[in-house]
Structure prediction request, 146 residues.
Amino acid sequence: MFIKSMAGGLFLALLATGSVWAAECNLPAAAQAGKMVSNQCKACHALEADKPSRPTAPNIHDVFGEKAVTRKDFPKYSEAMNMAAGKGLVWNETNIFEYLADPKAFLTKINGSDLKNAMFFQLKDEQKRKDMVAFLKAIKGKPECN
Ligand code: HEC
Prediction:
Protein backbone atom coordinates (compact mmCIF):
# COMPACT_ATOMS: atom_id res chain seq x y z
CA MET A 1 0.00 0.00 0.00
CA PHE A 2 2.76 2.39 1.00
CA ILE A 3 4.80 1.44 -2.06
CA LYS A 4 1.76 1.88 -4.24
CA SER A 5 1.01 5.39 -3.03
CA MET A 6 4.70 6.31 -3.34
CA ALA A 7 4.58 5.21 -6.95
CA GLY A 8 1.38 7.18 -7.46
CA GLY A 9 3.01 10.29 -5.99
CA LEU A 10 6.01 9.88 -8.23
CA PHE A 11 3.76 9.52 -11.22
CA LEU A 12 1.91 12.74 -10.36
CA ALA A 13 5.20 14.55 -9.80
CA LEU A 14 6.47 13.45 -13.21
CA LEU A 15 3.16 14.44 -14.76
CA ALA A 16 3.43 17.90 -13.21
CA THR A 17 6.88 18.45 -14.71
CA GLY A 18 5.63 17.24 -18.07
CA SER A 19 8.12 14.43 -18.31
CA VAL A 20 5.65 11.58 -18.64
CA TRP A 21 3.93 12.76 -21.80
CA ALA A 22 5.71 14.98 -24.28
CA ALA A 23 3.97 18.30 -24.86
CA GLU A 24 1.53 18.40 -27.77
CA CYS A 25 2.45 20.58 -30.70
CA ASN A 26 -0.16 23.27 -31.27
CA LEU A 27 0.41 25.30 -34.39
CA PRO A 28 -1.54 28.28 -35.73
CA ALA A 29 -3.38 27.63 -39.04
CA ALA A 30 -0.82 29.28 -41.34
CA ALA A 31 1.92 27.24 -39.73
CA GLN A 32 -0.09 24.05 -40.27
CA ALA A 33 -0.04 24.74 -44.00
CA GLY A 34 3.68 25.37 -43.72
CA LYS A 35 4.18 21.96 -42.20
CA MET A 36 2.98 20.46 -45.49
CA VAL A 37 5.45 22.64 -47.41
CA SER A 38 8.28 21.59 -45.11
CA ASN A 39 8.15 18.09 -46.59
CA GLN A 40 9.96 19.58 -49.58
CA CYS A 41 12.77 20.86 -47.34
CA LYS A 42 13.18 17.42 -45.79
CA ALA A 43 14.76 16.18 -49.00
CA CYS A 44 17.89 17.88 -47.62
CA HIS A 45 17.25 19.41 -44.17
CA ALA A 46 16.63 17.79 -40.78
CA LEU A 47 13.69 19.56 -39.11
CA GLU A 48 13.54 17.75 -35.76
CA ALA A 49 15.03 19.83 -32.93
CA ASP A 50 17.15 17.01 -31.53
CA LYS A 51 18.53 15.65 -34.80
CA PRO A 52 21.99 16.59 -36.07
CA SER A 53 22.38 18.33 -39.39
CA ARG A 54 22.42 15.98 -42.33
CA PRO A 55 25.43 15.90 -44.70
CA THR A 56 23.17 17.54 -47.30
CA ALA A 57 22.06 20.61 -45.33
CA PRO A 58 22.00 22.29 -41.89
CA ASN A 59 19.23 21.45 -39.39
CA ILE A 60 16.72 24.34 -39.65
CA HIS A 61 14.37 23.63 -36.71
CA ASP A 62 15.53 26.70 -34.80
CA VAL A 63 16.90 28.80 -37.64
CA PHE A 64 14.26 31.55 -37.29
CA GLY A 65 15.69 34.60 -35.52
CA GLU A 66 19.24 33.21 -35.66
CA LYS A 67 22.24 34.47 -37.55
CA ALA A 68 23.00 32.59 -40.76
CA VAL A 69 25.64 29.83 -40.48
CA THR A 70 25.06 28.87 -36.84
CA ARG A 71 25.02 25.08 -37.18
CA LYS A 72 28.45 23.90 -36.07
CA ASP A 73 27.53 20.36 -37.17
CA PHE A 74 27.21 21.48 -40.78
CA PRO A 75 30.71 22.21 -42.08
CA LYS A 76 29.73 22.82 -45.69
CA TYR A 77 28.15 26.28 -45.73
CA SER A 78 28.98 27.96 -49.02
CA GLU A 79 31.25 30.88 -49.66
CA ALA A 80 28.19 33.04 -50.42
CA MET A 81 26.40 32.08 -47.19
CA ASN A 82 29.52 32.62 -45.09
CA MET A 83 30.01 36.05 -46.55
CA ALA A 84 26.35 36.98 -45.95
CA ALA A 85 26.70 35.81 -42.34
CA GLY A 86 29.79 38.00 -42.03
CA LYS A 87 27.65 40.91 -43.17
CA GLY A 88 25.27 40.21 -40.29
CA LEU A 89 22.46 38.22 -41.96
CA VAL A 90 19.87 37.24 -39.32
CA TRP A 91 16.97 35.05 -40.52
CA ASN A 92 13.55 36.73 -40.25
CA GLU A 93 10.16 36.70 -42.05
CA THR A 94 11.26 38.95 -44.88
CA ASN A 95 14.60 37.46 -45.76
CA ILE A 96 13.63 33.76 -45.47
CA PHE A 97 10.68 34.56 -47.77
CA GLU A 98 13.06 36.10 -50.29
CA TYR A 99 15.82 33.50 -49.90
CA LEU A 100 13.46 30.60 -50.63
CA ALA A 101 12.34 32.09 -53.97
CA ASP A 102 15.90 32.23 -55.29
CA PRO A 103 18.79 31.53 -52.88
CA LYS A 104 21.48 32.53 -55.34
CA ALA A 105 19.87 35.85 -56.31
CA PHE A 106 19.20 36.67 -52.65
CA LEU A 107 22.81 36.05 -51.58
CA THR A 108 24.18 37.90 -54.60
CA LYS A 109 22.10 40.91 -53.60
CA ILE A 110 23.34 40.84 -50.00
CA ASN A 111 26.98 40.22 -50.89
CA GLY A 112 27.15 42.53 -53.87
CA SER A 113 28.83 39.74 -55.80
CA ASP A 114 27.91 36.37 -57.25
CA LEU A 115 29.68 33.75 -55.08
CA LYS A 116 29.17 30.00 -54.93
CA ASN A 117 26.03 29.09 -52.94
CA ALA A 118 24.84 25.65 -51.91
CA MET A 119 21.03 25.47 -51.72
CA PHE A 120 19.87 24.23 -55.10
CA PHE A 121 16.17 24.56 -54.55
CA GLN A 122 13.63 27.28 -55.27
CA LEU A 123 10.13 27.79 -53.93
CA LYS A 124 8.43 30.29 -56.22
CA ASP A 125 4.87 30.03 -54.87
CA GLU A 126 4.30 33.06 -52.59
CA GLN A 127 1.63 31.47 -50.41
CA LYS A 128 3.78 28.41 -49.80
CA ARG A 129 6.72 30.61 -48.84
CA LYS A 130 4.54 32.61 -46.43
CA ASP A 131 3.25 29.41 -44.86
CA MET A 132 6.76 27.98 -44.62
CA VAL A 133 8.05 31.09 -42.86
CA ALA A 134 5.07 30.96 -40.45
CA PHE A 135 5.93 27.35 -39.71
CA LEU A 136 9.62 28.04 -39.00
CA LYS A 137 8.61 30.92 -36.74
CA ALA A 138 6.04 28.79 -34.89
CA ILE A 139 8.34 25.81 -34.23
CA LYS A 140 11.27 27.90 -33.00
CA GLY A 141 12.17 26.72 -29.51
CA LYS A 142 9.44 24.06 -29.57
CA PRO A 143 11.07 20.63 -29.81
CA GLU A 144 7.60 19.02 -29.81
CA CYS A 145 6.92 20.58 -33.24
CA ASN A 146 8.68 19.59 -36.44
C1 HEC B 1 18.32 20.34 -52.40
C2 HEC B 1 18.58 20.47 -50.96
C3 HEC B 1 17.80 21.53 -50.21
C4 HEC B 1 16.44 21.72 -50.16
C5 HEC B 1 15.35 20.92 -50.84
C6 HEC B 1 16.23 22.85 -49.26
N1 HEC B 1 17.42 23.32 -48.79
FE1 HEC B 1 17.70 24.88 -47.50
N2 HEC B 1 19.72 24.65 -47.59
C7 HEC B 1 20.36 23.65 -48.32
C8 HEC B 1 21.79 23.84 -48.20
C9 HEC B 1 22.87 22.96 -48.83
C10 HEC B 1 21.97 24.98 -47.38
C11 HEC B 1 23.30 25.69 -47.07
C12 HEC B 1 23.34 26.82 -48.11
C13 HEC B 1 24.66 27.55 -48.31
O1 HEC B 1 25.58 27.36 -47.50
O2 HEC B 1 24.75 28.31 -49.30
C14 HEC B 1 20.65 25.46 -47.02
C15 HEC B 1 20.41 26.54 -46.19
C16 HEC B 1 19.16 26.94 -45.74
C17 HEC B 1 18.92 27.98 -44.77
C18 HEC B 1 19.99 28.78 -44.02
C19 HEC B 1 20.46 27.91 -42.86
C20 HEC B 1 21.47 28.51 -41.92
O3 HEC B 1 21.93 27.76 -41.03
O4 HEC B 1 21.83 29.68 -42.03
C21 HEC B 1 17.57 28.08 -44.62
C22 HEC B 1 16.82 29.04 -43.72
C23 HEC B 1 16.98 27.09 -45.49
N3 HEC B 1 17.98 26.42 -46.15
C24 HEC B 1 15.63 26.87 -45.59
C25 HEC B 1 15.05 25.90 -46.43
C26 HEC B 1 13.63 25.65 -46.48
C27 HEC B 1 12.60 26.35 -45.62
C28 HEC B 1 13.43 24.68 -47.42
C29 HEC B 1 12.12 24.08 -47.89
C30 HEC B 1 11.07 24.99 -48.29
C31 HEC B 1 14.75 24.31 -47.95
N4 HEC B 1 15.70 25.07 -47.31
C32 HEC B 1 14.98 23.34 -48.91
C33 HEC B 1 19.78 22.66 -49.06
C34 HEC B 1 18.41 22.54 -49.34
The mean pLDDT is 91.
